[in-house]
Automatic annotation (TrEMBL):
SUPFAM superfamilies: SGNH hydrolase. Keywords: Hydrolase, Lipid degradation, Lipid metabolism, Secreted, Signal. This is Uncharacterized protein. Gene3D superfamilies: SGNH hydrolase.
Length: 284
């Protein structure tokens, strides 16, 4: 969830179709390629090769992932891993740092922990001009409810920091408006918005319905609510990991990522996606 020094969950961008209208033969993915941009929520190893404190290539990160620690800031899968499965890819999209040869044509994950969202870090249409036509913009989530925010800003360790969440909602409203604007003014492009804030609100409001018993603390970390910093190398995490909404001070665990990924792909509520979900976008 960290964007430089701001420590906020960045919006991330998925490109689902690059100059391709046909799904191909039976059994192939629903889209020909899948490119991912974002921060630590979806980084899957790009930071492993750089000198940075924002790394997760050590246990207990990846403790529930088949390949172990890969650089994912989770105990297991991220939301974009779940979406890759639902789109029909037979393997996860590789990080840019290790992608080679023709596998790059299938898609690359460019996400990097602590990446920024300011204008100087990129341009809206660096991508459209290279042929990208289908985009998913995923909104900012409940940053004010993260263990880090609770540890620093909550008087009781449970009440979400509303000043942070209000700012998140203002950003999301602008992002949704941007989707409308670009859909009107960018020929042949199709953009959708995923309401990650609303999906996460459901998990916080009714955690037991989703199997969560702990929503105000990380399964792994240091300090109050395990919310001061991320997991230390070889730290012992909680045993009941699927019952924790958050894995560490900033990032949801695999159980939460699976729910968010599935509802991003196939909306369960009309408010989950606008104007429609990823499944529909892939069919267009």
């Amino acid at each position: 969830m960290m964007c430089g020094d701001l420590k906020i969950m960045c919006v991330f961008l998925l490109i689902l179709n690059l100059l391709g209208d046909n799904y191909g033969a039976k059994g192939e993915p629903q889209v020909p390629c899948y490119f991912i941009f974002g921060d630590s929520l979806v980084d899957n190893g790009n930071n492993n090769v750089i000198r940075s404190l924002a790394r997760a290539d050590y246990l207990p990160y990846g403790i529930d992932f088949p390949d172990g620690p890969t650089g994912r800031f989770s105990n297991g899968k991220t939301t974009v891993d779940v979406i890759a499965e639902l789109l029909g890819f037979d393997d996860y999209i590789p990080p840019y740092a290790t992608a080679r040869g023709r596998e790059i044509l299938r898609g690359v994950n460019f996400a990097s922990a602590a990446a920024g969202i300011r204008e100087e870090t990129g341009q809206q249409l660096t991508l459209y001009n290279y042929g990208a036509r289908k985009f998913v913009l995923i909104g900012v989530g409940q940053i004010g409810c993260s263990p880090n925010a609770l540890a620093q800003n909550s008087p009781d360790g449970r009440t979400c920091a509303q000043n942070i969440n209000v700012a998140n909602q203002l950003f999301n409203n602008k992002l949704r408006a941007l989707v409308d604007n670009l859909n009107r003014n960018t020929p042949n492009a199709k953009l959708i918005y995923i309401n990650a804030y609303g999906i996460f609100q459901d998990l916080i409001d009714n955690p037991f319905a989703f199997g969560f018993r702990v929503t105000n603390a990380g399964c792994c970390g240091i300090g109050r609510n395990n919310g001061q910093i991320t997991c230390l190398p070889f730290q012992n995490p909680c045993q009941n990991r699927n019952e924790y909404l958050f894995w560490d001070a900033f990032h949801p665990g695999e159980a939460a990522n699976i729910i968010v990924g599935r509802r991003s792909y196939r909306a369960q509520k009309s408010t989950d996606a606008y104007p429609f979900d990823i499944q529909r976008l892939a069919q267009l």
